Amino acid sequence: MEPTDITIQILRDIRSELRGVSERLESLERGVSERLESLERHAVATHEAIGVLTEQVTFYGRSATAAAEARLRQDERIDRLEQRVGALENRDHG
After folding, report:
1. By residue range, what is the domain housing residue 53?
2. pLDDT (tens digit, 9 = 90+) per residue, 56-72?
3. Inside any domain, residue 48
4. Residue 55: Cβ within 10 Å count
């Protein structure tokens, strides 16, 4: 069976369409790849930023804890001094 001109033309059209589809798929693949690379860069940057924030929160948390402990010791010392002053005042007036 000999190919006809119409068969050859249909095959050429199919081949042309397939090339167009292939080019669109390659373009789509490049776009998706670029988008994924961009998302990966953003994910890495976000991870690094979270690490920095975690370090800062830890530092300030420790500083706040240390300040609260120092304040507690100071309050306890003031309470003891006030008790001693009260005892001295009661002794002098009693």
Report:
1. 31-94
2. 999 999 999 999 999 99
3. yes
4. 10
Does some domain include residue 3? no
Residue 7 lies in a domain: no
25-37 burial, b at 16+ Cβ within 10 Å, e below that, comes to eeeeeeeeeeeee
pTM above 0.70, yes or no: no
Q: How far apart are CA 50 and CA 81, in angstroms?
A: 46
* Assigned domain for 10 exists: no
* pLDDT exceeds cutoff 90 at 94: no
Query: What is the pLDDT, as a whole number, of residue 1?
Result: 60
CA distances from 62 to 5, 12, 51, 75, 76 (A): 84, 74, 16, 20, 21
Specify the number of domains making up the chain.
1
Quickly tell me which residue has 């860069």 as its tokens: 41
Grouping H, G, I as helix, E, B as strand and the rest as coil, residue 40 is helix
